[in-house]
Design goal:
CATH superfamily of the largest domain: D-Amino Acid Oxidase, subunit A, domain 2
Strand order of the largest sheet: 1-10-9-8
Distance between the termini: 27 Å
Radius of gyration: 22 Å
Helix content: 10-25%
CATH class of the largest domain: Alpha Beta
């Protein structure tokens, strides 16, 4: 598809406006790459009786979602799975796992390309106009501009999804709050008492205030404040095993990540200024992984999430004025985990347009 100055190209099917995780016009066939994902299991740990109440609510949600094999286990059972943890009770999810995220995105990109999808990288959307059920999308790549025409558009522009939404519908009510997610790491082979058997290890979910501070409150009070929009719930800083290339294949490696740590940023592209220090992660992890020392922790990665201001959940729906413009706004964590299911959901939305 050559780019021409103010050229005009008619797009077949769908014109997706993408960010870091593509939502495609056609769902790729299921990925079967055993080296790129692993069923590790997950423990969610309660360290006191108040946390047990939150743990019970986690089990309620898992039952509603039909999570297979999920159950409450004792401290003794939990320590058989991960000897270096601390808790009074735990929830065990044997079906939980991890994926090598960069390879997942690459697989989606490759399969989409092989099925006729064309990607324009480093391309800015300048304007979108709706004319007689056709969208004119003006873009700029370097010094070249082009106008595309499409009957269907998917807005999956991540941090800029609110701005894209208002290009086509100025009355769109949604705003993105950029929240930077950060992570740290340690190496489990450093000492025997840091040995990590390979499960995802989480604290019990807990509420936070709008300023990001933890709300150390009983569960019944959390329910009241959550309904009033005064707190939200977070999964907290947790331990995640990672892949490494061992003997020329992806295997669970020596590095364990800690995160996410989150903070509000004003610049949607700010991935590095004022990163939270290792002691931030240490204070959250120490209660349930007590042998970890602050000196074991170093900083790892960071990236900015697109969090919605107006509501807690994602927006995945046709635009109110233009039903052939699909809005995907505020897809923050766990958007990567849900990306294939989101694609299937969008495919169903497109059938109804």
């Amino acid at each position: 598809m050559p780019l021409k100055n103010e050229g005009r190209t008619k797009c077949q099917n769908v014109f997706p406006l993408l960010s870091s995780v593509p939502v495609l016009s056609a769902v790729p066939s299921p990925i079967n790459c055993p080296k790129l994902h692993a069923k590790t299991g997950k423990l969610i740990l309660a360290c006191n009786q108040q946390e047990v109440e939150y743990l019970k609510d986690t089990m309620r949600i898992s039952a509603e979602n039909r999570v297979p094999g999920a159950r409450i286990i004792s401290q003794e059972e939990a320590k058989k799975l991960e000897p270096n943890i601390s808790c009074i009770k735990a929830a065990y999810f044997p079906s939980s796992g991890i994926v090598e995220a960069t390879q997942l995105v690459y697989q989606l990109y490759t399969r989409a390309s092989n099925n006729g999808i064309f990607f324009l990288t480093n391309t800015e959307v300048l304007d979108i106009k709706a004319k007689n059920n056709i969208f004119e999308i003006r873009t700029r790549t370097g010094s070249q501009t082009e106008i595309f025409e499409s009957e269907l558009v998917i807005n999956s522009a991540g941090l800029y999804s609110d701005k894209i939404a208002r290009l086509v519908n100025p009355d769109s009510p949604y705003d993105i709050l950029p929240i930077r997610g950060e992570s740290a790491k340690f190496y489990k082979s450093k000492r025997d008492n840091l040995r990590h058997s390979g499960l995802n290890i989480y604290p019990t979910p807990y509420p936070i205030y709008p300023n990001g501070k933890k709300a150390d409150i009983p569960f019944d009070l959390f329910q009241q404040l959550f309904e009033q929009g005064k707190v939200v719930k977070t999964v907290g800083v947790h331990l995640t095993p990672t892949f490494d290339i061992i003997n020329n294949e992806y295997q669970i490696g020596n590095l364990v990540t800690l995160g996410p740590a989150t903070q509000r940023v004003t610049d949607r592209e700010d991935n590095s200024e004022g990163l939270l220090p290792p002691e931030h992660y240490f204070q959250f992890v120490k209660p349930f992984f007590p042998n970890l020392e602050q000196k074991d922790i170093s900083l790892h990665q960071a990236g900015v999430q697109a969090k919605l201001v107006q509501q807690y959940d994602w927006v995945m729906r046709p635009d109110e004025k233009y039903p052939n413009f699909i809005q995907l706004i505020g897809i923050d964590s766990p958007g990567l985990t849900a990306c294939l299911s989101i694609a299937e959901y969008v495919e169903e939305l497109l059938k109804s347009v």
